[in-house]
Amino acid sequence: MSKVLDAKVLAVYQVAPETYYMELEAPEIARLAVPGQFVHVRCSDAQDPLLRRPLSIHMVSRPKGVLALLFRVIGQGTELLAKRQPGDTVNLLGPLGKGFTLPLPGSRVAVVAGGIGAAPLVFLVQELANMKCQITVYLGAKDKKSILCDGQFTQMDAEVVIATDDGSMGFKGNVIDLMERHMDWRKTAMTYVCGPKPMMQRVAALLAAADVPGEVSLEEHMGCGVGACLSCAVKIAHHGQITNKRACADGPVFPSWQVVWD
Ligand SMILES: Cc1cc2nc3c(=O)[nH]c(=O)nc-3n(C[C@H](O)[C@H](O)[C@H](O)COP(=O)(O)OP(=O)(O)OC[C@H]3O[C@@H](n4cnc5c(N)ncnc54)[C@H](O)[C@@H]3O)c2cc1C
Ligand code: FES
Known about the structure:
Elements: E1 3-16, E2 19-25, H1 27-32, E3 38-41, E4 53-56, E5 59-61, E6 66-72, H2 76-82, E7 89-96, E8 108-114, H3 119-130, E9 134-141, H4 150-155, E10 159-164, E11 171-172, H5 175-182, E12 190-194, H6 197-210, E13 214-217, E14 233-238, E15 241-246, E16 253-255
Parallel strand pairs: 8-9, 8-12, 9-10, 10-11, 12-13
Antiparallel strand pairs: 1-2, 1-7, 2-6, 3-4, 3-7, 5-6, 13-16, 14-15
Bound molecules: flavin-adenine dinucleotide and FE2/S2 (inorganic) cluster.
C-alpha cells in the first residue's frame, strides 16, 4: 500500500558535483519501504513541471520515521528539488515498485554501482548487512569527487572496491573490468546492479556467462509511476516469450537475464 503525503525536509546538502542528499520526515513510507523501491516526487508546488519524478529510496530509518534521497541534478525537476530548504515540504507518492530479492542470510553477494546508481544500493546494503551477508561493493565513477557512498558502505562492513575512469581513486578504468578481475564468481550467490544502461547490460552479460544470478534496477522514463500510463514499458524475456512489463509496477528491479537490452 503506497501513500501520498507532504514530507518535511529535515536536511538537504550537496555531496558531490551536481549530487544532493535530502532527508525527509515520512514515517509511513519509511515503515513500508523495502530496498529497490522508489518514491514519485513533486518537485515544485506550481503546475510546472506537472509530472512527478521517480527517485529511489536511498536509506530509511524506521525508528526515526525518516527516509533519504540521493539525486543528481539533470533537468528542471531535480534542479528545483535541490533548492528546497529544511522546513519546506515535498509531496511524495510511495513506496512504489517492486524491490530487490533478498538472498539467504549469510550469503556472499556482490553489489555493482555506477555513478548515481549507488543511490538505491545503500538501502539494499543496509538490509544485507542486517542479514549478516558477506558483501562486496564494486563502486565506479568518472573521478574521485564523483565516487558516492563509499563511507556508508564501509561503515556497514561491506568490502568496497573502487574504480575511477581517470585513476584518481582506486583502480584506473571501468568498474566492470575491476569486477571481472576481482569477483569470485563461484562463491557469489547473487549480484545486484544499478548504473547507466550500457554498464548494466555488460554486467548482465557477464553474469549470464558465469551462470550467476543477478538483478538490475532500471531507470526508465516514467509518467504515472503506478502502472496506468504504460510510458515505462520494458521488454522482458520469460520462458522464451518477450513481453512488455511496466518498470514502475512490475519493476524497477528485474532479473538481469530477463531484460531485453535494445
Ligand atoms: C525507478 C527510478 C529510480 C530513480 N532513482 C534515482 C535516484 O535515486 N537518483 C537520481 O539522481 N536519479 C534517479 N532516477 C532518475 C531520475 O528520475 C531522473 O534523473 C529525473 O526524473 C530527471 O528529472 P528532471 O526534471 O531533473 O529532468 P528532466 O527535465 O525530466 O530530464 C532532463 C533530461 O534527462 C533525460 N532523462 C530524464 N529522466 C531520465 C531517465 N530516467 N533515463 C534517461 N534519461 C532521462 C530527459 O530525456 C532529458 O533529456 C530514477 C529513475 C527511476 C525510473
Ligand atoms: S509510469 Fe505509468 S505505467 Fe509506468
